[in-house]
Task: structure prediction
Amino acid sequence: MARSFGEYSPAVPLGVTWEESILLEDENGSPVDLTGYDVRAQLRAVVPVVAAGVPLTYPVMEITTAGYYGTAPAWPVVEAFTIADPTDGTITLRVDVDDLDAISPSNAKAKLLWSIVLVNKNTGYAIPLVTGKPVFLPATTL
Result:
């Protein structure tokens, strides 16, 4: 049974490029091999409501590795996750300032929900990494 490995709720200033990295290690402290995995995270205003397996609400934004979707979904998707090649257990997030502006176009504080998930490219099997409530803070320099 999959489980969430932790909680991560960063404070993210608007008006800048958002950069984070996550290092996944096994119980011996060795980097986890992430070959064959994609990464995705959905930023949502509320917990999604689902009917017949279909979400009734869209995320504010979804962040993925490049090429995650063959056809773009109806909500905004930013390809901002990368996995080092060769893999060293590191996942990097880099959302450009222009893409980050879509979180709060009026530059107001926004507290969203998210979860970061590893997805096996071949099987679709999803492994949750972290969940949390990132807070997007108004930019003071525009």
The first strand starts at residue 6 and ends at 7. The chain has one domain: 6-137. The helical segments are 97-100.
